[in-house]
Specification:
rod-shaped, 7 strands, single chain, two-stranded antiparallel ribbon, three-stranded antiparallel β-sheet, about 15% strand, 1 helix, alpha+beta
Length: about 120
């Protein structure tokens, strides 16, 4: 959901995330809202062409509209469920240890079932 700060214009984005307002020339601010669960706004950047124009609350700075379309106002979002920083320090050693433990656990579980199958086969004889 996209709306100006005063609620004068409210728009839902389409399936590709596009939206548009038709407003007279002037100064405006846009508030983005209605994020899906586990999503937050990306950090605001300084390059309007390829980063988020809104702050962490989903609100843009004042935007001047003067006789031309402004197609460069957007916001980035990302899912915190994919945020690996909260789960790991990114250390290659930690990742290697985690992978080795997963392989060891998988082998142990596999060995358990093989042994269990052998035991059942002996009991059937």
């Amino acid at each position: 959901l996209v709306n100006d700060l005063y609620g004068v214009n409210t728009r839902d984005t389409n399936v590709t995330g596009h939206y548009s307002f038709f407003v007279p020339d002037g100064n405006y601010s846009i508030r983005f809202s209605g994020l899906p669960a586990n999503y937050i706004f990306s950090p605001k950047g300084n390059n309007s062409a390829n980063d988020s124009d809104a702050n962490s609350n989903g609100v843009t700075d004042i935007i001047s509209v003067s006789g031309a379309d402004r197609l460069d106002i957007d916001v980035g979002i990302y899912c915190t469920c994919l945020d690996t920083e909260s789960r790991s320090d990114g250390s290659p050693a930690l990742n290697t240890i985690s992978a080795a433990l997963m392989m060891l656990m998988t082998l142990m579980i596999g060995l358990f079932f093989v042994r269990r199958e052998e035991q059942l086969n002996r009991n059937e004889r």
